[in-house]
Structure formats: structure tokens, C-alpha cells
Design a protein that fits this description.
The protein folds into 4 domains: 1-53; 58-69 and 263-356, Efflux pump adaptor protein, beta barrel domain (Elongation Factor Tu (Ef-tu), domain 3); 71-101 and 228-259, OB fold (Dihydrolipoamide Acetyltransferase, E2P) (Beta Barrel); 105-223. 42% of the residues lie in helices and 24% in strands. It has helices spanning 10-53, 104-160, 166-197, 208-225; strands at 58-67, 70-74, 79-84, 91-92, 97-101, 228-230, 235-238, 248-249, 254-260, 265-271, 283-288, 291-303, 329-336, 350-356. The strands form 3 sheets. A 6-stranded antiparallel β-barrel has the order 1-10-13-12-11-14. A 4-stranded antiparallel β-sheet has the order 2-9-7-4, with no helix packed on it. Helix 2 runs antiparallel to helix 3 (166-197) and helix 2 (104-160) runs antiparallel to helix 4 (208-225). The relative contact order is 0.17.
Length: 360
Amino acid sequence: MAEADPFKPASANTDAGSAAGEHRKATRMKRLRLVAMLLVPALIVGGALFWWFGSPGDVSTDNAYVKQDIVSIGGEVNGLVVAVNVHENQQVKAGDVLFRIDPSSFEVAIRQADAQIAAAQANVTALSADVGANAANIAGARDDLALAEAQYAREKALQDRGFNTRARIDVAQHAVASARDRLASVGAEVEKARAQLATGAQVPGLNPQVASAQATRAKAALDLSRTVVRAPVAGRVTQVNRLQVGQMVFTGVPMLSIVRAGGARVEANFKETDLARMRAGQPAEVKLDAYPGLKLKGHVDSIGAGTGSEFSVLPAQNATGNWVKVTQRVPVRIAIDSASGDRPLIAGLSANVTVHVGSK
């Protein structure tokens, strides 16, 4: 190492060393600035590309919504609402009474059906009596026929010996014919009564008129039971404001709805270009806009059978000269595997879904 010049002042040597240090520091800073100028834009571009194209092992979409099974409840019979037993957003169990319809007209229908059954049973009794009476008449008609035939035989024997007239023979023949007609008429009446008392293969042992009246009563009793409308499933009641006491209920018109408990899922609309590596059963992560800190685990339950446009009311018709290709969306059902705690999964909530499809 070179020794300091003895002829130079000590301050001069110190200034020279300081200048060299400053030069090295300036050079180092220039290099750092150059590296920063090259690295920072590269990181920005790389991050933007990663954000734009996504992770190679993940596909994501924010076009996703929470779906739940919604059961529309209406009346199975027509009538006036006389009582509403639920309120908006109330939790109900299967079998709970939702509302009641005026049962008066259906109670009258049951009484009418009871009267029809009584009339049919009385008719059966009358027919049975007719069969018994006509059976006695048949015996009498047979006796009359035997007497008429015997009288005709006597008259014929007298005529053969020349002791009778043709007029008496005609009278005897007419009496025989009348007796036979009466016997046939009484027999037909008996067969008719027996036919009315007969039972068919569908309701063996029961008169058809009685069976018809009993079926009418069963229908009236069923309608009466339907005046009490019960919850078919457990869940949360909604749209109760459409149901008011005094309102007319018509069959087939929904009066309220029940959001079924435990049926929450997410329907995510992925781009068709994201489906190449997507399969049923792959894990997924769901984030809800309503609950920023909540992350739910799930999996791909199924992939839709058609794009959203195919199931629209007016599907797109692209056979035109101004056709523009648009990336289609395919609905993918995501089953939720983890619980949401005390945060309810409300139908229609917006969601962000990420499916882990694995690396390329």
C-alpha cells in the first residue's frame, strides 16, 4: 500500500479518500436506480398478466350467485282466506299450518254426499224388496200358466169328441198366451232388479250407486282437508304480503313461497374457454360480496348442459351477415361443503368463485 506523500498536507489526503468514496456511492446508486427502472415495470407487467390470465391452476368468475330451492305455495281448492298463521321470514317446519280457507262450502258438500249415500242405500233396499216381490209374482204367474194350459187341454179334448165350439178353444188359447206373457214380464222385472243390484269387478261386493256416492263423499272430505294449507317442506316463509285475510284463493295461483332449508348452492357462469380443464368434483372456493371476510369451501357439482343464451326466452340467432362472435357463459353448479356460521346464505347474493383445476 502506497504511503502518504510526506510533502502533501494531511487534509489533502483525507479529501481524496472522501471523493473516492462519494464516487463509489454514486456509482452504486446509479446501478440500483437502473435495476429498479428495469425490475419494477417488469413486475408490474407480470402482475398485470397474472391478474388478467389468472393462475394456471385456477379459473375464477364473479358472475356467480347464491341459489336456493324455492317452493311456491298455493291453494288446492278455491275459497276465501279466513286465517293467516305465518309472517314474513318466519321459519317453519314441514306440516306447519300456513293459512286456512273458509270450509263452509266443503262441509255442505260432505252433507250432500252423505245424503247421496243414504239415497243409494235406500234404493238398494227397494230393489232387494222388488226382487223378493217379483219372485212371488213369478210363482203366481207359473200357476196361472199351468191352469190356463190345463183348461186349454180340456177344451181341446171336448172339441175332439165334438162337444165344444171353436170360440171356447180360442178363449182357452188366449188365456195360455196371456199367462205366458205375464210370466215373461215378471221374469224380466226380476232380472232387471238383480242387474241393478249387481256389483262390478272394480268394486266387488258394493253396489255401484253406493260406491259412486261414497267416492263423492271422499272427494268432499279431501277438499275439506285441503282448506288447511300446510308447509310441504321446512324453510323460511317469504312473500306473505300477497296473502291477506278475505282474499280469494284460486287453484294454481301461488300465494306465498318457502325457501327450502339446507338447499343453498352457487350457480357460477364461467366462460366457455374456462371449461377445458374443469371437471365435476374439483375443489372450489366461494367468496360472497355480502360477507367480505367469509370464505366457503365447495366443489364442482355439475356443469350445465347448455349456455345461458340457449335457455333464454329468445335465443340468439347468429345466421346473419353482421354476426359478431361473443364468448358464451356456461352455468356451473357449485356445491357448498362448509358452513356459513351465523351468516345466512340468502338466495340471489353475489359471489366470486374460484375453481382449482390443477396445473397445466
